Amino acid sequence: MTGAPREARGRRVIAVAVTPRGRALVERLPYERSPDGLGATLRAQWADADAFVAVAAVGAVVRVAAPLLGTKSSDPAVVVLDEEGRFAVSVLGGHHGANELAREVAALLGAEPVLSTASDTAGTPALDELSGSGLVAEGDLASVGAALASGEPVGLDNPLGWPLPERLAELLTGGGERPGRVLVTDALAGPEPGLAVLRPPSLVAGVGASSGAPADELAALLSASLDAAGLSRASLGALATIDRRAGDEALSSIGLPIEAFPADELATGAAFVPNPSEVVAGAVGTPSVAEAAALLAAGPDGELVVAKQKSPHFTVAIARRKRPAGHLSLVGLGPGARDLRTPAADRAIRNAEVVVGYEAYVSLCSDLLTAAQHVLASPIGAESERAETAVKWAASGRRVAVVCSGDPGVYAMATLVLERAGERPGFPVEVVPGVTAALASAALLGAPLAHDHLVLSLSDLLTPWETIVRRAEAARDADLAIAVYNPRSKGRDWQLAALRDLLLRARPPTTPVGLVTDAGRPGERVVLTTLAALDPELVGMTTCVIIGSSTTTVVGGRMVTPRGYPPRGAGTAPR
Fold first, then answer.
1. Is 394 exposed, middle or buried (0-12, 13-18, 19+ CB in 10 A)?
2. CATH class of 327-435
């Protein structure tokens, strides 16, 4: 159970360059930087790094890397950049992180990713790049992948009935008599020419543990239990245990998600286990931990495939899920620019099987989408349908990403989707934050939101105008800077002027106002004006209007709302 694959560990990327211009380029990348030369860095760090970004000639990198090569699964990914930062070339480990890293580097530098793997050029899903579905690929991937990329028939043997990515399922013909064949199974299978094996995360191990139990003992018990049952370690997708043990170091060391259940819930599930224990019930409040936790985590259709196994400090039981657990990510893309999109957002989208969103927002992340993903883009106004669709797909066992501009919890889809998911959706839900329009616009203007401020939407489609007016009056009376969303559209062309007039009753006509249109997108426009001179005709739906407080000033052409720091030299410590 040791030696987790590279992708299961924290990613370590080392950037190295051979010239001063190259080193300047490396300084722009958010990776570990090596002060040594290309050859010294690769030779010294080859076994420890997950990936390298080298600013050098491709040929030079190939000559250094060639003697270091081991296997596809163990070698680090290698991406090469030219000194001008125009091209990010995936050189080694395309489907083991290099293609993804090349896209990431290209997004950071405004470069072009260069991918030469057959599946990318043919637009077919790569068998060894199905991380979003949780499938682990083994076997003769080269020949089966080549057959898929060239359009040759490839058979499918899926005794588990495990859901596959839709694009991949379309390419597989069914039946196992073809020269190329894909087998979907969690059972051990020997290597065979023309056979690719996909390991679904169908197994969950329930674990009971005593306090301070050693990690190596748990790893050994898990391995022995799986081997004895003829099951693959690659299909072990999660651990499950009682909530008081969820943080134990031994469980965390396995490197899998941990699902925890309270004792009363385990006690209910214990009614269906073969090996309840009154001793365990007296100690922890449930007659079963390992078997009950495994079955609960496997879901209502799960089955116990390995009954309780014991070691001095642990008990282990293994259940099989009939379908994936599902996962829902609400992803903030930021204002639009690739370099303002967070790495967490990129990962959530790349790891999704299904991507749901307003068509304009889906286009903002098109560089992350692959042929293996099912993309559901819809027009504006279909928010409820998008939320229902996302929850439905996640409930069916798919990994789903709902993409939003800015932050998903700020005038976006997060509340709607969370409401649709309900109290106990049956799948994990995460919210991935993004840079909001207000923050992106404020950064372009200077620091207008540096003190207390209000974010206000002028759209009265969901909020009565009377309520909007009361909030605006409160912000005016409290002397807050205001970031205005949805300021004006074809059907709502008077509200911004009404807000301006309301604020002029208490604020000087010279109060600075910033208008930022399409922040972080093509056509970005920044206008600095005053409250009295604010012209609604300059404003559209993609404009964020930031109105200063009475203390907001313009310094060097930038809006600044001071926090009230004492004058320089007053002797107070910075905050």
1. buried
2. alpha beta
